[in-house]
Amino acid sequence: MPDVTLVKITRRVGLLGAGLNAGVAVTVLFLELALRRLDGPEYVAVRQAEFGVFTSFVGAVFVPTFVAVAALAVQARRGRGPAPRPALVAFVLLSLSLLVTLAVNGPINVEQLGWNAAAPPADWADVRDLWQIAHAARTVMIVAAFGCLVEAV
User: Fold this and answer.
1) Averaged pLDDT of the chain
2) Which of left, alpha, beta for 53 (phi over 0: left; psi -120 to 50: alpha)?
3) d(CA 116, CA 96)
């Protein structure tokens, strides 16, 4: 496959994936704002129900997006791809969002799966708040990464 074709495919995968990731992150942000009205058992039941679907989908979209954006950053540095600075910034932002996911959101997701929905732990609202703050931060990073990719390509 010629190098030019690879660059085009990488750009499209990166842009599409980053756009999907940004859309999902913003949607979940607003969903979580709506869920703040629920009491503990209702909140836990919803979180447990959505976990499998969202986790599978986000993983299936994020992994190829991350690989494509990494490739775009490398291509940009070599002078064969998009603008170097926006592509590199997009990669850094996606990397930071992944770190937030691995350090905060992922462990909380696993913890919440083990909760009894009928009797959540006493600190359930504090855990929810931490998850939502971390998600808001990674949403900003993901949306900004998408903006950088739009600028880069």
Assistant:
1) 93
2) alpha
3) 32
